[in-house]
Amino acid sequence: MKLIECPRDAMQGLHDFVPTALKTEYINLLLKVGFDTIDFGSFVSPKAIPQLRDTTEVLANLDLNNTNSKLLAIVANLRGVEEAITHQEITYLGFPFSISETFQQRNTNSSIAQSLQTVEEMLNLCDKNNKTAVVYLSMGFGNPYGDEWNIEIVEKWAEELVNRGVQILSLADTTGVSTPEKIKTILPALVQKFNHTEIGIHLHSTPFTRLEKIEAAYQAGCTRFDSALKGFGGCPMAADDLTGNMATEDLIAYLQSKGENLGLDMDRWNEAMLFSSQIFDNH
C-alpha cells in the first residue's frame, strides 16, 4: 500500500503566502511519518501558483537524512521539467494530463496534443536523469466543461500514455465528480488492462462523500492513494471550492480498519496534525 501525502496540493490555493520557514517545518514533520511519497512543491510559473514560488528554497531546507519518504514535484511544461530534474533530492516528477481539452488549456496553457509531447520529452529527460514520471489522468471521472467524456476516452488516453512509457498513472478526480460506481467501474478496468503499470487514484471530495469513495477505491483494488491532511486544498485552476482533497486521517482510519499495516509513526502524524493549524487556520 502506497500513501502519497500532498501538502503541495493542500497549500497551493491558500490566499495568503505561507512563509518558507513555516512550509519547511510542516513538510519536515510529514517526512518523519512514513508516507511513501511527499508531494511537496511545484516548478510552475509563480504567476499561476504564487503560493509555491519558493519551492526551491523549501527543498533546500528539507531534512532528508532520517526519512524513507520520496519527494514528488509537479511540473506543467518542459521548462518546469528541466528545472526539476536538476535537483537530485527529487524522485518523482508529476504532470497533470487532462483528457478535457478545456481544462488542459486552463491548467497548463497548452492543448492535449502539446501536453502529450511534453510527456514524451519529460519521460526522456527522466530516463536520462534517474527520475520517474507520474502522470495524473485529470478529469478521469468526468468534467463540468462540456467536453465529451466516457470510459472509452479515459482508456484511450491511458493507453496513449502507457504506450509512451508512463509507469505510474494516477486517475485524478479534479472537480470531485467521481462516484463509488464510477470508481468501481473505471479503476479495475485500467488495472486489468495495464497490469504492468502502477495505477493510483487522486480523489477530490466533499467531507460527506470521502469515506464512500475511499471504500470504493479500496474494494476496486487500489494500492496507491493520494491524500492531504484534513482534506485541505483542491485545484485552484478548477475553481472547485467545495471539493477538497481526500483527508489523510480518513484514509488512514479506513485502511487500518481493514487490517492494513501502513508502517506510519502515528505520534509524528499527530504532531503534524497539530502543527497544520499554524498554516491552514492563519492563511
What does this structure look like?
With about 280 residues, this protein is an alpha/beta fold. The protein has a single domain, classed as Aldolase class I (TIM Barrel), CATH 3.20.20.70. It is built from 11 helices and 10 strands. It has helices at about 5-10, 20-30, 55-60, 80-85, 100-110, 110-130, 150-165, 180-195, 210-220, 250-255, 265-280; strands at about 1-5, 35-45, 70-75, 90-100, 130-140, 170, 200, 205, 225, 245. Helix 8 links the parallel strand 6 (about 170) and strand 7. Helix 9 crosses helix 10. The longest helix has 17 residues, at about 110-130.
Outline:
The chain has 283 residues and is α/β, with parallel strands linked by helices. 41% of the residues lie in helices and 18% in strands.
Q: Helix coverage percent of residues?
A: 40-55%
Strand/helix succession: EHHEHEHEHHEHEHEEHEEHH
Counting helices, strands and paired strands, the structural category is alpha/beta
CATH architecture classification name: Alpha-Beta Barrel
Biggest sheet strand order reads 7-6-5-4-3-2-1-9
Q: Write the CATH fold name.
A: TIM Barrel
Cα separation of the termini:
32 Å
Shape summary: globular
Rg is: 17 Å
Q: Hey, roughly how much beta strand do the residues contain?
A: 15-25%
E-strand count:
10
Give the CATH H-level superfamily. Aldolase class I
The average pLDDT score comes to 93
Number of domains: 1
For the report, how would you describe the main beta sheet? 8 strands, parallel
